[in-house]
């Protein structure tokens, strides 16, 4: 009978703790949203530097594409006029422009990879936090079960509070992981659209990336 009463007392205490924790989290979420705190750091990956670099390289690629187009047309005209000297200069300039274009495309790809890496770091942080939460929660539950079996009211109350706390942290970090995954996929789609709009090309690679990102976001809903 004593154990039964103790279990009821602990369960009531856990319910109260969860309710209070939920209210506190709701209030803090409102505050952090307005004050832009670091509580949801994993959900707000700062990719401003990478996005700025991507925009810069897209502009360079556009300029190089125009330069290549101009030099090709110039070479045709000089060839039609049988201007060997001008043709030699055109070839030299065209080779340089093509090399610069290849370089800028490589830099664009690298910046995009850096952007994805920033998101992956946030995702991995969430996964590690969830792993730790599960371990802490399991340990606290085992202690609580032992306290209940022994009729240890003082330690049972303490570990019941720990169980509620770790469960709350686990739920929060699961939510953070969900948001981190959605943010990553959404930004990949957005960046690919910027590349398509700026360069005027929509490659098979971009199409595949967007299809995968859209599918993952649909799964996360």
Biggest sheet architecture: none
Number of domains: 1
Total number of beta strands: 0
| Rounded average pLDDT | 80
One letter per element, helices H and strands E, the order comes to HHHHH
Q: Give the strand content.
A: under 5%
Low-confidence blocks of residues: 1-6, 15-42
The secondary structure category is mainly alpha
Distance between the termini: 46 Å
Described by the principal axes of the CA atoms, the overall outline is rod-shaped
- Name the helicity range: over 70%
Summary of the model, kept short:
By secondary structure, this protein is mainly α.
Can you tell me about this structure?
With 221 residues, this protein is mainly α. It contains five helices and no strands. It has helices at 2-35, 48-80, 84-150, 153-199, 204-220. Helix 1 (2-35) packs parallel to helix 4 (153-199). 18% of the residues are buried.
List keywords for this structure.
mainly alpha, disordered N terminus, 221 residues
Topology diagram in text:
Layout lengths: L1 H34 L12 H33 L3 H67 L2 H47 L4 H17 L1
């Amino acid at each position: 009978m004593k154990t039964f009463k103790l279990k009821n007392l602990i369960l009531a205490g856990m319910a109260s703790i969860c309710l209070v924790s939920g209210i506190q989290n709701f209030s803090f979420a409102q505050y952090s949203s307005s004050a832009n705190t670091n509580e949801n750091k994993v959900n707000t990956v700062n990719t401003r530097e990478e996005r700025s670099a991507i925009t810069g390289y897209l502009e360079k690629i556009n300029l190089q594409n125009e330069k290549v187009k101009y030099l090709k047309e110039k070479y045709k005209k000089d060839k039609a006029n049988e201007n060997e000297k001008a043709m030699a200069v055109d070839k030299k300039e065209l080779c340089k422009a093509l090399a610069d274009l290849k370089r800028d495309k490589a830099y664009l790809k690298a910046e995009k990879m850096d952007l994805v890496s920033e998101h992956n770091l946030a995702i991995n942080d969430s996964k590690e936090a969830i792993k730790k939460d599960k371990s802490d929660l399991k340990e606290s539950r085992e202690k609580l079960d032992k306290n209940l079996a022994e009729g240890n009211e003082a330690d049972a109350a303490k570990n019941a509070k720990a169980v509620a706390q770790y469960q709350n942290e686990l739920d929060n970090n699961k939510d953070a992981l969900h948001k981190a995954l959605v943010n990553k996929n959404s930004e990949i789609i957005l960046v690919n659209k910027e590349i398509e709009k700026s360069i005027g090309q929509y490659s098979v690679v971009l199409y595949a990336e967007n299809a995968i990102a859209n599918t993952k976001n649909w799964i996360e809903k």
